[in-house]
């Protein structure tokens, strides 16, 4: 099939590489000329095209920062062929689905999506054809979405080596708040606190693991956090509460409560692994 | 030299394996018969011995849980040869140094130590001769510690592939509060929050990295947290504050403050890497 990609960053570039490996034709668009050029040089797209041209493809992946998804859909939906399927890659789904139901209520060929993969570096220079191997790729179709549109996206997702998973947008947003956005916020806090220390060389393996994603693209991640503010705020408050409980237990020399803090985590970890 | 090891767990077992690889003779002791047997089977020690016998070695590594270091030193110091050098491996140093200065004020051959290495699994079954390669090994000698005692420990540390680093015990404790104990607490919180989710399969790379150490041995880690309660409480409060700032910024739709949260982390990460 012919695939359009709007936004040739880390994710869009990786989609292009993966689908070209699978012998599809890929048309790419990016507002940044430098991204477009890097994407072509790295083989992420067969050629660059305008939004109007990209909108004629069989399937268009919109892989732009969260706050740009609405404006991009606004430009794309009116000029696409009626049968063109459009899917996005934003890591927050409720707002995108709300936007589509409000601005394009009759649209039956939009499938909300979120590939659960990424990297601490951004841009097409870091794109990889292996980015989505063994990853989950969330899809959040609406009730009125055409079944064949969903199937088409699912097929391409599988060709990229990922597993498509259909899920409700709100459930998705609560999950990523805990599984992705909170970890990124905690990593950011750690990195910042560590920068105060005079001996930053004294780090061990746990520090390296917990801070890998501590310096991610501020523009992208502030958009992600803002996009998911309802769920993320709840989750941040819950984490604050647990930190406070541990601190108060230590200050009050309540050794049983300290032990119980680590016991709960051990039990939870066991649950994960079975 | 002849090396004694008191406590044949993950760390003690790894010290034994590394130093036997370097052709030293290793005598081991553990209060748990099963640990002793596993250690012998895995080659962590040449033979098992009583505390009194181990105390006759040239250097004794005390690698027991933090709260057991004091009692173990109390048993060991009176029965050792005057020239025997004793070092510990506890990840909190102020309390150990305080204990020695109070209980054995004339002792010039005790060298506080902390190998900055570990693993999320505990016990001698997971011991490795490579555990300390490229790791820092903190040493916190007191003013009256014999220079040749420090040199002897430093020599063995280097033979294990680690880099000895001399540092003040309070500075050490503040560093590990941020670089190790806080990351473990955050990982514990994440693991616990993740266990509530119905779709625990929807995890990505950042979750895996940030929760690797989320289910560590509760007995050991509650002792570590309690042992470092002064520094850890401060650090927990600071992390709570930053989480609250991000939450309030999201709740008040203060997009600039959200952006600034991620900007600070990016700048701090850059500082780390240069």
Structural summary, described in words:
2 copies of one chain form a homodimer. Chain A is an alpha/beta fold and 274 residues long. Chain A contains 11 helices and 8 strands. Chain A has helices at residues 10-21, 33-41, 51-54, 66-76, 94-103, 147-159, 169-194, 205-211, 218-227, 229-251, 255-273; strands at 2-6, 25-29, 47-48, 59-62, 85-88, 110-115, 136-140, 163-166. Chain A is globular. Chain A starts with a strand and ends with a helix. The mean pLDDT of chain A is 95.
What is the strand content of chain A? Answer: 5-15%
Shape of chain A: globular
Order of helices and strands of chain A: EHEHEHEHEHEEHEHHHHH
Which ranges of chain A are low-confidence, i.e. pLDDT below 50, for 5 or more consecutive residues?
Answer: none
Alpha plus pi helix count of chain A: 11
SS-based structural class of chain A?
A: alpha/beta
State the share of residues found in helices of chain A, binned by percent.
40-55%
Count the beta strands of chain A: 8
Write down the overall mean pLDDT of chain A: 95
Give the radius of gyration of chain A. Answer: 21 Å
Distance from N terminus to C terminus of chain A (CA atoms, Å) equals 40 Å
Oligomer: homodimer
Largest sheet of chain A: 8 strands, mixed
Strand order of the largest sheet of chain A: 3-2-1-4-5-6-7-8
Which two chains touch over the largest interface?
A: A-B, 88 and 88 residues
